[in-house]
Structure to design on (413 residues):
């Protein structure tokens, strides 16, 4: 068997399929330049190419494909938000995620596991009841469950942590996970097949704006002209918006997570606590992932810190006491662009033909398909904003029409 595998691998007829073409020189101009080769930028390119026939596209990435926040999240997918605008938007994303493996012919390891959010106070129970009804009304699947149902769903969970006994829970049936880098590679592979150029190690240094319209993008590999540009970067959104002369309401914070050694399966649902400010999930490899609130100060840095590790793990151990003996394997951080109302900024900008996909906070991965679809519609229409993303326009901060999603999760809000 090993000899046959070696023979097969060294054969000149080895039928390997190349996912991405080799690097090439930048052209002098493109119809569309997308800044950022994470999930959102690649998804936008794919939907433009497949459904709108626009293929003269350059996706620019300063490091490597999917290496920013796409590679630094915990891969949770859900739609149990607070507002009708948010639920409609994320419910559509969940629906699209469910069919991505078939659409790509590429396994993104989508796993519907459900998400359980614990309520420790009467006020939280009232809030969860409202969320459950909003979810059901706008296409999500959420319901309230009691302590006995929680005990049956997660037998290993401590229902009486310290002074915060669990009263009830919000059970979100649609909660799921997917392999984050597989999502990015699936979009990249299918976009490249249709002629989209993906340029890694290509940093955008400046935006060239003439008569209030973007005309070109300056990179470390030269300047390229463009018919329009889409900003789809995470962590540094406000800095790029400043280059375009756009005033931004975004502040950027590090967000940390960590993972243990692998265990035999004991936790299928994703479990979070709104009071303990912590979430716990077990991966398909058996590792236990912990996440929680962001750092309390703005910073453009992906370093890990001991103080947050200690506080986060203390809360996780209150939920699952036996994990006190688990060994941590690694700890990492991403940088999140937070808006005042904890909702994204999508759509038009004050600069003509410069489109914004920013301010995602901790919610960018779960919006990948619907974001790509709607941003592609926006670009292909020449600036007609799709109904699904109209509430998330930048102008809402000057018209006082915020979409308040504060408190919609147990992490960072």
């Amino acid at each position: 068997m090993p000899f046959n595998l070696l023979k097969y691998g060294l054969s000149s007829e080895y039928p390997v399929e190349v996912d991405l073409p080799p690097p090439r020189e930048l052209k002098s101009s493109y119809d569309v330049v997308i800044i950022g080769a994470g999930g959102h930028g690649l998804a936008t390119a794919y939907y433009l190419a497949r459904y709108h026939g626009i293929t003269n596209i350059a996706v620019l990435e300063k490091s490597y494909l999917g290496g920013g926040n796409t590679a630094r999240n915990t891969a949770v997918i859900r739609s149990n938000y607070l507002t009708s605008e948010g639920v409609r938007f994320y419910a559509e994303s969940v629906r699209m995620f469910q069919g991505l493996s078939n659409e790509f012919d590429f396994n993104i390891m989508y796993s519907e596991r459900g998400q359980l959010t614990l309520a420790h106070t009467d006020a939280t129970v009232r809030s969860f009841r409202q969320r459950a009804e909003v979810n059901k009304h706008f296409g999500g699947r959420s319901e309230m469950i009691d302590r006995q149902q929680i005990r049956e769903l997660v037998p290993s969970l401590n229902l009486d942590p310290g002074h915060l006994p669990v009263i009830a829970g919000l059970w979100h049936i649609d909660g799921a996970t997917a392999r984050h880098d597989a999502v990015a590679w699936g979009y990249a592979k299918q976009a490249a097949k249709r002629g989209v150029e993906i340029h890694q190690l290509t940093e955008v240094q400046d935006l060239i704006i003439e008569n209030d319209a973007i005309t070109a993008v300056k990179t470390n590999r030269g300047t390229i002209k463009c018919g329009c540009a889409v900003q789809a970067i995470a962590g540094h959104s406000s800095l790029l918006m400043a280059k375009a002369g756009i005033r931004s309401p975004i502040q950027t914070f590090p967000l940390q997570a960590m993972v243990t050694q692998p265990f035999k399966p004991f936790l299928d649902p994703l479990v979070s606590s709104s009071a303990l400010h912590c979430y716990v999930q077990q991966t398909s490899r058996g590792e236990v992932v912990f996440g929680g609130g962001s750092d309390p100060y703005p910073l453009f840095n992906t370093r890990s810190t001991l103080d947050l590790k200690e506080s986060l793990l203390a809360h996780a151990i209150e939920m699952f006491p036996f994990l006190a003996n688990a060994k941590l394997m690694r700890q990492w951080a991403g940088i999140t662009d937070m808006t005042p109302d904890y909702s994204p900024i999508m759509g038009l900008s004050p600069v003509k033909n410069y489109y914004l996909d920013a301010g995602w906070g901790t919610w960018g991965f779960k919006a990948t398909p619907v974001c790509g679809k709607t941003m592609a519609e926006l670009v292909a229409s020449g600036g007609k904003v799709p109904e699904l993303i109209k509430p998330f326009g930048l102008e809402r901060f000057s018209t006082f029409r915020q979409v308040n999603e504060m408190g919609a999760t147990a992490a960072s809000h």
In short: The chain has a mean pLDDT of 93. The first strand starts at residue 29 and ends at 35.
